[in-house]
Amino acid sequence: MTTVAPRTVDPEVDAIRHHYEVSNDFYRLLLGPTMMYSGGYWNEGEDLVAALDEAQERKLDTFADLANVRAGGVKRVLDIGCGWGTMLNRLTTVHGAEEAVGLTLSRTQEAFIDGLGNPRITTLVKSWADYAVADESEKYGAAFCINALEHFVSSNLPPKERTKRYRFFFQQVANALNPGAKFVLHTMTAEALPMNRALLDDLKFLQRSEFAGCHIPHLHELTAGAEGLFEVDEIVNERESFAMACRAWLVLLAERRDEAVAMEGEEVVARFERYLDIFAYTLEDKFFNNFRVTLTRR
Ligand SMILES: C[S@@+](CC[C@H](N)C(=O)[O-])C[C@H]1O[C@@H](n2cnc3c(N)ncnc32)[C@H](O)[C@@H]1O
After folding, report:
1. Which of 14, 54, 257, 280 has its CA 20 to 30 A from that of 73?
2. Which residue, judged by its Cα, is nearest atom 10 of ligand 1?
3. Averaged over 278-291, what is the pLDDT?
4. Is the C-beta atom of 189 inside 6 A of ligand 1?
5. What domains lie within the chain, and their CATH numbers?
6. CA 121 to CA 113: how far, in whole Å?
7. How far apart are CA 104 and CA 84, in angstroms?
8. Could you give the count of Cα atoms lying within 13 Å of 195 in the half-sphere of its Cβ?
9. 54-76 pLDDT per residue, tens
C-alpha cells in the first residue's frame, strides 16, 4: 500500500515527508540493513552491492575519527538530518558516545529509531532551524550532517536570501557546539556548468516533483556561511561515494522490484528509479560533487 503523508501547513515539511515517509520496509529493501541514505566508502575492487554495508560503516567510522569521537573524549553528539539513526547508533554502541541526539522531519524515521531500543539516542522531529540547546551543559562535543543539507535551503529563495539561510544554518550548528568541537558535513554541491535540455528536464523533475524546492548548494555558499564561526580543516570531493551508493541502491531495487511495487506501487518505485539514476549520472558526469567538509568550532 502506498504511504501518503498527511499535509501540514508547511510546504517544506510536506516536501520532505513526500519522500521520507514512504514505508520503512521499502527503505530497508532499497538501502539494505545499514539503512544509510548517503555515500559510502568502497575499497578498490569491492563489489558494489555485496560491500554496501561495509562501505557505509567504513564511512561512519571515518567520520567518527574526524570528529574525535573514536578517541573517546566526546560524550554528546548531534546528527542533523539523522535518517534512520544508523550514525547515532554507531556512535553510541561502537565509539563510546554517551548521548546522541538526532534531528529529522520524518515521523516514520523517528518510529524506526525508537524501535532500535537504544536508550542513549534521542530523536527529535524538528527542523535544524527550530532547534537550540537549552543551556551550556547541553552543548555538543561533535556534530554531523550527512547528505541532508541538500534539503535545508529552498531553491525558491533568491540567491542573496539563500546565502543568509546557509549562514543561519552554520550559526545554528555553531550555537549547539562547544568551542573546539568538530563538525563533519557531507553534502552534494553543484558546479555552474552548461546544461543540455535532457539534464534540465531531469533537474526540473528533482526540484519540482521529487524534492520540491531542494537546492544543491555551491561550495562558496558553504564557505561564506561558515566563515568566522568555524575553521575549515579539510574539504575533500567524494563524488564517487554517492554515485556508487545510488548505483548499488538501483541494483537492490531492480532485484526485488516486484516486492517494492507490492509495497508502494508502481508510481513510487518508478519515481525512485528515475531520481537515483539522475543523481548517479550527474555525479559521474561531474555536474554535482559530494564534498566532505571537516570544520572546527572556533
Ligand atoms: C538523505 S537523508 C540522510 C539521512 C542520514 N544522514 C543518512 O546519511 O543516512 C536526509 C535527512 O534529512 C532530514 N531532513 C530534511 N530536512 C530537514 C530539516 N529541515 N531539519 C532536520 N532534518 C531534515 C530528513 O528527514 C532525512 O532524515
Report:
1. 54
2. 148
3. 96
4. no
5. 11-297 (3.40.50.150)
6. 8
7. 9
8. 15
9. 999 999 999 999 999 987 789 99
